């Protein structure tokens, strides 16, 4: 007779075949939660990784599309559309934040402590780095776009500079944790933040009465 874990594993595989990744995540969470009683097998680790990667990947793709559309509408000056897009984007960001937080919690509370081999430890620590990177990626891009919005649309240069500086400082602290590709992306965002800060600070000083 199949155990609950075996049934959950079969259901996860079935969900993967049907490309129903939320269901796959749900089943793999059951297995991961019991990791301290029975460590995950290589197959189970890989299925857990696939489940969350697809769940997060879909939201990252949605977020990038919305960001692109938002920039297009901003350039056209369509403020009502921009507000609508931002509201929708916030929903995606909340989902992205929740999913990343969920897998990071599983890793910290169940999976990393249960790892009995170097291979398992490395696998889980790499997953942790990936999901922290996903969070850092969208938060840095978000801060960049919001700072531009504050400066160009709302005409609040002080707030724009404050937001850009905070994002720049946080991005610096995350650089050491990033892989080569992510490092390049982050460095580009940081360069844009720094360029904006330099330009905005100069313009603010020039506009002050002598």
TrEMBL record:
Q: Where is this site: Interaction with phosphoserine on interacting protein?
A: 60, 133
**What name goes with this protein?**
14-3-3 protein
**Record's family?**
Belongs to the 14-3-3 family.
Q: Which SUPFAM superfamilies match?
A: 14-3-3 protein
> Which parts of the sequence belong to the 14-3-3 domain?
5-210
Pfam families hit by this protein? 14-3-3
